[in-house]
Amino acid sequence: MARTTSTLGIDRADVRRARTLARQVGRPIVDLAQRHTTVSVERATLRLAGLAGADPDGTPWVNRLADVVRADVGLEHGVSLPVWDALLRGEGDDLLTLAQKAAAGSVTFRVPEGKDATRARAAARKAVGAGIRTIDRQRAARERMIAKVGDAPSKPWIYLIVATGDIHEDIPQAQAAAREGADVIAVIRSTGQSLLDFVPEGATREGFAGTYATQENFRLMRAALDETSRELGRYVRLTNYASGLCMPEIAALAGLERLDMMLNDSMYGILFRDINPIRTFVDQRFSRQVHARAGIIINTGEDNYLTTADAVEAAHTVTTSQLLNEYFAKEAGLEDWQLGLGHAFEIDPEVPDSFRLELAHAMLARELFPDAPLKWMPPTRHMTGDIFKGYLLDGFFNLVGALTGQGILLVGMMTEAVVTPWISDRDLALQNVRYVMNAAGNLHEDFRPAPDGFIAGRARQVLGEAVGLLEEIKADRSAPGQPPLLSAIADGTFGLMKRPADKGKGLDGVAPKAADYYNPATEILEGA
Amino acid sequence: MSTGLVRPYGDTTGDGMVQLSFTLPIPHSKVAEGAAVQLANKMGMDPALVVHAKAMGEGFTFFVVYGRVNHLVDPSTVEVVERDYPLLTPKEANAAIKRSLRRRLVVVGGCIGTDAHTVGIDAILNIKGFAGEKGLEYYRELKVVNLGAQVSVPQLVEAAREEKADAVLVSQVVTQRDAHLLNTREMSAAFREAYPAARRPLLVVGGPRFDETMADELGVDRVFSRGTTPGEVASFIVHRLAGPRGPAGTSTEKAS
């Protein structure tokens, strides 16, 4: 006896079943994440304690310090005990001095025991606690500013990208985009950054297809958008990427510098960047704990599945990944309003009924995650250089966005795959969005798909396939002794990419925790 | 092509009509519209009609201009890289490899540099393919190693050696600051350094913004541009590596 308030005729029991499976598949991964640490989690902890800057070669002090600690005592205890023990032993007046001395080879670290360990723990907690209080203050500052200058006037929030490679070029572009109507500005990252095992330092002016994520770039852009927010009378949100090998550190910097949204997917780095699966799951759990605390909305990366796999055949992998992302996010403390679960308009326009299929998929996401903002991504694969056809396709994309109450709408450019957006491309794209929202923004009030029709049937089919895939993953025992999800990732279940747990970039930065492992950041974030 | 000289076609033969859109960094005014006409005139459009002008941001105006050009183009003088090898079906390609190499032909592919866009290399290599043609993985006699995104040049050379690659396929989508050209030159130089000339694998690059005539300049054997299908790439590789050799080496040309 299903309670069918669903407009798609979806049985609530099926939805419960899907979530139960996601939990069953996700839980062993969380256990695994809890049993390991990574160099980036440890460096993020040092950043929260206030260690910033880089040596003359540009290597951040957090890397220099963490590397020496690791060489002396290993990573398995965490860096906090050895570092604050050294400070208490008078090896340095502060973290920066200690890092400099460590880099020069004049400090030897040890793992303190007994009373020394207790004192080191307390000192570390105090130092890291100060950083977390800064994050709390930034969250309060955001809320205050929204109350004072006002929020984005309507949903979906209009999300525009800047990507010049030069922060000083990005700033005027971002401000112009905000004036033209953007509610959210995303600064695309230099494509190489995800595989850097350090966060570059300072204001940067050179990047490939994007600008490096650095603390200073974050600060400069947020300050500029604060100015523009006051000018426009609405808070303009700033987005960057907590992904790649330095995901936890970038999350910490985002919290400290009041970024508002971060791209942060649970499996993207594994599948599309060949980053080691364990490294990724450990890093993403920590980064999501930081995002939860900082009041940051995460954007997940399901759209990427559809850029490599067929958007009809692989529709259920999007749903599966959304369910997993939701589980991992909530486990890390994120709330529904912080879950910008991703999906995209990527079906080949030559496929018959492609628009009805897109609508079915988007309605399914909306119905499964009614309280999540959802991040709706425009067509890219079938944007061919025929800008006229592309403009029409973007209009239909916007229409699905309007019909399904998307929270975050990444504005599609007709010159996708041709050039990085020109000023005119952005203006035309925004006209497209405004026309559709103005003409059909309330159409969802009238629109109900026929209960036995094509759209409802397709939505139920995709959910069914997602449940089937989750069951298949849960039963995957191909890598003995490992969580089934790791086996599934290893044998190419997602996007046909095979990513074994003992391979991939960044594996050497992972360590199982020792019994005396201590991380004050995790302690505070989990205790809150 | 034997059409002779041609002009753009709007709705009447020889009318020479074209459309153009652009932005000028001046606020919208009658002067701005006049400036747009001036630009169009200088580009050879005469008469030029500004059909749309709209202020955009602060101090910018977007224009759509229609007009007539009196230039003639001569298709007979256009230089393009025509396909100089026969198009083979997967079956024919497999047979040619079997006959000529007596082993599988090894293809190593990836996106080099910071480029993370695997859509091109995947379209060519993945079994799923592109434009209705199956990718190279579908060819029984091809061993395909797809290294994916953000492969460094040394990694690519290393993988090519390890796999004893016969051909190396590189895709480049990102073109900012000419990254695709710089990366390709770096790649071809690295292969020239790492291999004696006779042993070097066939180097093929592709991407939507490449100019197919640039192969020599980039130090590669072939450049493929937008719209290339897996079958074309496979046929080229087979033609160069498993085509008939010796005195009868040109016989394949007849097949086309």
| Topology pattern of chain B, helix = H, strand = E | EHEEHEHEHEHEHEHH
For the secondary structure, the number of strands of chain A is 11
State the major sheet of chain B: 5 strands, parallel
Q: On the 0-100 scale, what is the average pLDDT of chain B? A: 88
User: What is the alpha-carbon Rg of chain B in Å?
Assistant: 24 Å
Regions with little confidence, pLDDT below 50 for 5+ residues of chain B = 245-256
Separation of the first and last Cα atoms of chain B: 17 Å
The coarse silhouette of chain A is globular
Spatial order of the strands in the main sheet of chain B? 5-4-6-7-8
- Arithmetic mean of pLDDT of chain A: 94
Shape designation of chain B: elongated
Rg on CA atoms of chain A, Å: 23 Å
Strand order, largest beta sheet of chain A? 7-6-5-4-3-2-10-9-8
Class by helix and strand content of chain B? alpha/beta
**Tally of DSSP helical segments of chain B:** 8
Spatial separation of the terminal alpha carbons of chain A: 40 Å
**Regions with little confidence, pLDDT below 50 for 5+ residues of chain A:** none
Q: How many helices of chain A? A: 19
The largest interface is: A-B, 29 and 27 residues
Helix content of chain A: 40-55%
